[in-house]
Protein 1
Amino acid sequence: MSNRLQKEDSPYLQQHKDNPVNWYPWGDEAFSKAKEENKAIFISIGYSSCHWCHVMEENVFLNEECADILNEHFISIKVDREERPDIDKHYQEVYMLLNRRSGGWPTSIFCTPENKPFLARTYIPPHSSQSSIEGMGFIELTKIIGQKVLENDEQILKNADEIEEFINKKEHPKEATLLKEDFVKNFMLQVKNNYETKHGGFTVAPKFPHASTLNALTILDRLYDDKAAKAMILHTLNSMKKGGIYDLVDGGFCRYSVDEKWLVPHFEKMLYDNALLCDVYAKAYLTYKDESFLTTAKECADFWYESMSEDDLFYSASDADSEGEEGTYFVYSYDEVYDALKNNNYEDIESMLKEMSVTQGGNFEGKNIIRFDNGVIPSYFSDVKKILQNIRSKREYPFIDKKIQTSWSSMMIKALFTLGDIDNKYKQRAIKSLDALLRSMFIDSKLYHTTLIHKVPKVEAFLEDYAYLTQALIAAFNSTQDEIYLIQAQRFANIALEKFYDRGSWYFSKGEFETKAEIADNTYTSSVSIMLDALLSLSTLLEDDKYSHFAFKTLEYNSYELGRRPVIYPYMLSQMLRYLKGDRVIKSNIKNLEISANELAFLNYPFVVKRASQDKDFMVCGDKSCFANTSKINKIDDIIKKSF
């Protein structure tokens, strides 16, 4: 029999509607019931493509004994972190406070009947593995907690009160530090310290792509001709596209690599990773003229547009698991690849298999992930790829989460506009997707965060939605010079300032959960840093100093942390440099800007915006003055260089 989640739109909540656990969605009904019956509250937070969330469902939430304990002693609440990032952020802070380290998903929170948290875990197995509470299994743990809450255990209630008091304390930043380019030295020192020299990247294992760090290094190389930054970018980007974390067969990046080589991925694919990495590879192509980077960016965009979208709207994620196991859809046996090549009349099959890293023993649990260790994709692979896709087509495709998210969709739209300056096909896709997103998520003058495709959205937008959408609208204006996009960008920025800004500080959410916005670039780029980008663009394009004032106050508020640990805030560092050095505006008539979009995209200076004017040539301007004009695009870089 289905529980209360059957009425919810969220794909993640729908996955749990037939659990024997009597789940409640987040809401007043659950909290009233807990108080009324004096029951502990168990909050489980996850998302539809999360592998360990599936494992916990299978081992715990489908376990009748576990379900019986929860149903008798707890009010159990399921939360989709992608639908309600405000709730997730709040409880990730609780986890960090209680465990002195960052958490993850699934997140398991235990609270008093008044919803005051006192214990936080991630995945909990059904049975105890050791005697300490850290290793206590779900059955034993919930029996103890249920009994103690029923008896109104004083220690649990006291701990919960202390935790709530600590969470509600307002923290103020240290004294402001003078913003200066010297922050770059500290950043480079910290990045080099984290850099993994053998395979690239900035951790050992598990290894995440760190798109914001790569983006910042590209900017530093363009500004300062930094050979160390260039070496780290090129090595990392070349290593990642060899195959593994990057899916050479279908296209698109997986969430992260479980090993140092970027070979064995966690096979889920997230829209935000693919959007940010698509943008990074496109910009790397514009910086280093490496065609393989452009190929990767295009394949990434094509995969999401062709396989993960509907009516020009982007789905949020696909799962790692299919047919009950992780990676089943993605990997190959030696025999099936050999036979497929033989049936297609290929010769020298053994050497081809060796080149594609396909062996009898396999490189992943006896099967094979397609990979080219030398980083060079041979010419035959474009045809072989179709054969490999055909093998996959006979398998069950992993679950696709068809949620539409304003922030994540805006990331991909912005990346498509970056590609659009290189290939007009992507510009047209970006325009269609942006217009579809606005029709779906901006209704009756209200912006929304997420909805299942073709459903009416219910969850109102958070700071990240305003930030990334504003950034995408500015990219649309730069690409098309359509003033409507600039007007819309200004409108959303103004609403964000009104709703979330507070004297240099920003909130992620207001209302039910008043959550401070992070400034660190974690799972993806901080929404505060994206707002900085948007505000600086608006200041330049509208010639309105109030936007640069808000940007400065934000930078000043965070200056102490930015100067001390810039490696954690790479996008904010790049926007600080932009604030200090200033934008350069390329002005010309619309026809000139359209015809020259590709050449202008290759300009070296990273902080360039475009503005249509009546000029028949190209005028290069700064904040309050213009420096020179020229009819030759290849002279613009020199003009910008001499303007400093």
Protein 2
Amino acid sequence: MSKISRALISVSDKSNILELAKILQDFNIEIISTGGTAALLKENNIKVTEVSDYTQFPEMLDGRVKTLHSKIYGGILAQKDNPKHIETLEKNSIPQIDLVIVNLYPFEATINDPKCDLELAIENIDIGGPTMVRAAAKNYKSVAVLTDPSKYDNFSKELIKNKGEIGEAYRFKLAQNAFSHTAHYDEAINNYLSNTDKEITFPKKLNQSLNKKMDMRYGENPHQKAAFYIEPKVQNGALANFKQIQGKELSFNNLNDSDTAWECVKLFNEPTCVIVKHANPCGVCSAKTLKIAYAGAFSTDPTSAFGGIISINKEMDSETAELIINQFVEVIIAPSYSQAALNIFKTKANIRLLQVEINTLKNNLDFKKIGGGWLVQTSDNHKLDINKCKVVTKLKPNNEQLEDLNFAWEVARHVKSNAIIFCKNKKTLGVGAGQMSRVDSTRIAAIKAKNSDISLVDSVVSSDAFFPFRDGIDVLASYGAKCVIQPGGSIKDDEIIEAADELGLIMVFTAIRHFKH
């Protein structure tokens, strides 16, 4: 145990600091503080010594230099069990500092303000704060350090329990938190300054600091442990901002599949339902009402929908909820829920209900982990203008077919490659996913439609990449499809177009591919 006799407080975020300072005062702990914090403490009748009075050295350079003084750092860095250190302190009249309470200039909040420019960002880079935090954390055997206002209450309880003393194990935990805090701060600065050069998409060093949001029930398999980490600033509309309203703990697969469902359903403006199973949409439908959209999505592949993830892009209403409650579902995602819908879902308390704000913004970079490194790419944010696509066949699509082609294309970008999607009336009819051969994906999509007793006559088909041979075209035409949308770009494009004309198909080229692995 180590007795706390003297504390240094310098906080930008003054949340909870008065409550903590009053407890310190109750234990007769001397408080040293910088200008703004000192003024607040004095206003609330807490005895405090300003740093400039303590060091006999004024703050200067518009506050850039406040705590950078040997009397501060000597007091923080001296080891209590080192006689030479204690002798040096006594020789130079430097009191020991046992507790450092510091949080840093609000750099991230500053740069997230649209009005922020480089000059303002630079002025909000803290210098003395991180130095004090690191010094205290390095000397955790002698000094306790606090950086997070939400931890003050726990520290106060520890202090009260131990009658003004703090144990080494607890100080070590505080030190761990402190170094994590300064590392994240420096990372935010590095990322901001790296991104000021708009010509550089991928900086030489890319730092990512993630905060643990929760432990998961398990990983991809029950014998694997898992946790969910989020970025420091999550964009509105991202799944990571979910609020769980009811249901069991989430698993790794629950969130992985939920992300696919949510990113897909956000693409559509009409009431839309997306059902995902094992990271692939197995049913998607847009309609006049959510109830019709859900029924359409479910009917595509009821077998695969069993135990799936359901996402919708409008408020969950009671009529839709009454249909869904009859299905075995793992997770439901919606921007909001009516009270009547919530009452229906309460009858099955294990169903996980997630609420996420609708916003179509996507992150600038996507990451994939491989052994020993990360693959980093810009996000697939391309928005297709169906009216600017090239019709390459003799037959041309009508407006209804163009709408279905656009719908099918948007679904395809969220289906694992090789992806083939049969659609009609803004509803998926058959989905072929994740095959090594495109023709096999075409056959699987048709088989799934047949298993659900769905006709593919007059349907449209989307393919996430070009057809390398005409065999896939022959298969989809044999099931009655009338239109195909694909990127084009194969060395056999002329042969593919000739086959489409021969089969009486309409073919549209997008000139862009949507591989998803």
